C-alpha cells in the first residue's frame, strides 16, 4: 500500500509531517509518497541525520504551497503546482492508494472534488469525523462540508456513513439516525421531514438500518453508529460538544486547587476531559475521512505533530481497506431521487 | 404583584406546585392565584394542615387538565376549562401580572399565542432559556418553539433577546451574536446570511449591539449575552451541551471509585457537573421565559418540585419588572422587513 502525504500542509509542515511519515513507514507496513518542495524535504532529512531518502519514502516535487490565506475554492486552480494539487493528481492517476493532508479543509474539499472526483452519482462529498460516545463511538456525517443540504444529500450521507461504519467498525447493519429536535417522525424542518421519508424508505427496502430521528443528547449517549445531518447543524453539534468540554475544564479549575489531594484528582479528571475534548474537535482528531470521493482522502488536523500525522496515515491505510466507494457505486441507483445529475 | 400559577401542570401537580406557591408567597412579596380543580387544591391545603386558604393565595376553579397526551396545538381549544386555558385568560384580562405553568410546552406556547396574544407585529413567540457560560450567563433565543424560521423572525429574536437581557441582567447594550458555523459574515445557510444582513443593519442604525456570527463553542465560552438562532438549531445546541455533560458524568464513573480519596473528589466534581447539566436542560431550569407574548409567561420544567416552582415564580416576578413588551411595541417598526402582518 502506498499513501500520498502532503508534506507542506498544516502549521508544523514540513518537519512534523515528514517525521510522522517516517514513523508510519516503520510502524505500519506502508510506503509513503511525500509531495512538496523537494529541497525543503531533503533539508529536513539532513537535519534528522539521513544522508539519503529513507527506505519506503519517495518524494514528488511540487513548487507551491496552498496556505490558509488562499481562497479555498480557487487555490487548487491558481496554484497548479502546489503540494495539495500534485498529491491529489497522483491519487487520481493511481500512483498511491490514499491522500493525507493537514492543509486547508476547504481547499482539500474542492481539490478532491475537482481532481479525484466524486463517486459518479454522489452529489456532495462530506466530512465524517469519528466521535466518542458512551459506547464504541459514532460517525457524524456531515460535519461542515455542506452548510446547505437537500433531502437527497442526506439520503446519500446515510448510505455513505452506513457503508463506511460497516466496513471500518466491523459491525453489521449500523444504526443510522437522523439528527433532529425530537424523536417523533413529525419533527424538524422540511429538510428533516423529507430526508426522513427518503431514508426510511431505503431502510424499509432493506438497504439501510434507519432507527429514525435522534436528538443530540441521545446521539452523544450512544443511540446510533451513524448520525446524519446537514453540515451547518453538524458544525453546531460538534462545536457545542467541544464548548461544553471546555466550559467544564474551566469550571474544574475553580473547583480544585484547594489542596494537594484535590490537585491530584484534578490532574486525573482533566486529562480525561481533555482527551474527550480533543476527540470532539475536528481540528485535533488524528484524521477525518472525506466520504463521497472516488478514492480515500483524509484531512489531518492543521496543528498536527508527528504522532497525529502517523495516526492520520494509519487511518488512511484503514480507509483503503474499508473504502466504501465500490459499494456506493454499485448501489447508487438507490440513492437518487431523480434522474438528473 | 400577582402571579397566576397553573396548579395542575407538570409531573408533581398539584402538591408540589401548591407548596412552591406557598413558599413564594412567604419569601417573595407576591400574591398568587392558583388555577385548577378547586377540590383537589383544597385537599392539598388540608393535608398540609391548613383549615383555610392561606393568606396571599386565591383559587380560581378550572375543571379540566391538559396532559402530555393531549395534542399541544388543539388542547387549548378543546379543553376550554383547563387550568392552563383559564390561567392564560386571567392573565389576558389583567387579573394577574404573569403566568407560570409546568404543563405541556407546546400547549402553553399555542395557548399564550391564542389567548394572551403576541405583541402586535411580532411574528413568533420564542422560548428563551438562560444558560451558563464561563461568564455571567447568556440567553438562547429560540431554543425550540420555531423549528422553521425566516430572517425576519431572527431579527425579531435579536431585539427581543437584547431588550430582555438589558432589563433582566442589568447590562447596557448586550452583545448579540448569531449562532453560525464560522465567524466570517459569509458563513451559514441562506437563513443566516439574510438574518446577518438584517441584524447588522439594525445594529448600525443604533438599535442593537450586534457582534456578528458566533460559533457554538465561543458562545459557551462567553462570547455573547444573547445568542440568536432558529429553534431547530437552538434545540441541537442545547441538547448537545446536555449530552456532553452527561457523557462526562458517565466517564467520571469510570475514572473514580478506585479509592476513598478519589471517591470524595468524584463527589465534588460530580455535583458541579450535575449542576451545569441541569442548567443546560430546559426541562430542569427553574423557568424559561417565553418572549414575544404581550405579557410574561414562564414555562417551569415538567418535573418541577416545590423549590423549582418557587424559582419559576421568582423568575416570573422578575419578568414583570423586566417586561420588554412595551419597548418592543414602541420599536416594532425597526423589526419589520415588509408592511404585511
Task: Itemize the secondary structure elements and their pairings.
2 copies of one chain form a homodimer.
Chain A: E1 2-6, H1 15-27, E2 31-36, H2 38-47, E3 57-61, H3 75-78, H4 83-92, E4 98-101, H5 105-116, E5 126-128, E6 130-131, E7 138-141, H6 151-169, E8 175-179, H7 190-204, E9 209-214, H8 216-220, E10 226-228, H9 231-255, H10 260-280, E11 287-291, E12 297-300, H11 306-321, H12 325-330
Parallel strand pairs in A: 1-2, 1-4, 2-3, 4-12, 7-10, 8-9, 8-10
Antiparallel strand pairs in A: 5-11, 6-7, 11-12
Helix pairs in contact in A: 1-11, 4-5, 6-7, 9-10
Structure description:
The structure is a homodimer of 341-residue chains. The first copy, chain A, is α/β, with parallel strands linked by helices and 341 residues long. Chain A has 12 helices and 12 strands. Chain A is globular and about 65 Å long. The model of chain A has no long low-confidence stretch (mean pLDDT 91). At the A-B interface, α8, α9 and α10 of A face α8, α9 and α10 of B.
Secondary-structure element series of chain A? EHEHEHHEHEEEHEHEHEHHEEHH
Largest pleated sheet of chain A: 7 strands, mixed
Based on helices, strands and strand pairing, what is the structural class of chain A?
Answer: alpha/beta
Which value, in Å, is the CA radius of gyration of chain A? 21 Å
Total helices of chain A: the number is 12
Share in helix of chain A = 40-55%
Number of strands of chain A: 12
Note the overall shape of chain A. globular
Low-confidence stretches of chain A: none
Short description:
2 copies of one chain form a homodimer. Chain A has 341 residues and is of the alpha/beta class.
